[in-house]
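Page 37, continued from 36.
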C-alpha cells in the first residue's frame, strides 16, 4: 500500500528516507516522461484562499501530458509539532488551474487520486505531492 508506505516514511522524516523516496520517484517520473522535462513548458499555478501563502505549485506540460507539483511551506505555526498540515484545513484554499489543465490527478507518491482545485484533495496524506493526469 503506497499510502501506508508514504505515511510511514513521513512519521520518521528525520532519518531522510522520505527525501530519498521523493527523489527516486521524481527521477522515475523524469525517466518515463523525458519530453515533459526536457521539452515541456513550465506552467506556474496560482493559489488563492486563506492558506495560499503556505503553498507552492507548478506544472509541466508537453503536448497532452501533464505533471503537477504541489507542496506546503512555512506551516509549522499552522499545526501542532507532531502533526502534518493535511486534510480539511486546506478545504478553502484553491489551486488556480489553467482552463486546459486536467482536473483529475494521481499522486505518484501515494497512489491517491486528487480532483478539482481544493487543496484538501491534494493534501490528504502528505503535505506535498507529485501528480500525473489520470
Amino acid at each position: 500500500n503506497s499510502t501506508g508506505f508514504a505515511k510511514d516514511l513521513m512519521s520518521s522524516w528525520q532519518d531522510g528516507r522520505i527525501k530519498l523516496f521523493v527523489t527516486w520517484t521524481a527521477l522515475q517520473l523524469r525517466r518515463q516522461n523525458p519530453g515533459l522535462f526536457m521539452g515541456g513548458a513550465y506552467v506556474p499555478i496560482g493559489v488563492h484562499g486563506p492558506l495560499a501563502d503556505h503553498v507552492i505549485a507548478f506544472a509541466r506540460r508537453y503536448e497532452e501530458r501533464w505533471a503537477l507539483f504541489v507542496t506546503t511551506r512555512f506551516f509549522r505555526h499552522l499545526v501542532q509539532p507532531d502533526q502534518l498540515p493535511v486534510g480539511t484545513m486546506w478545504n478553502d484554499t484553491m489551486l488556480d488551474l489553467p482552463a486546459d489543465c486536467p482536473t483529475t490527478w494521481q499522486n505518484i507518491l501515494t497512489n491517491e487520486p486528487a480532483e478539482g482545485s481544493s487543496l484538501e484533495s491534494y493534501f490528504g496524506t502528505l503535505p506535498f505531492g507529485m501528480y500525473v493526469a489520470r
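The longest strand covers residues 55-62. Flag for discussion at group meeting. The longest helix spans residues 17-32.
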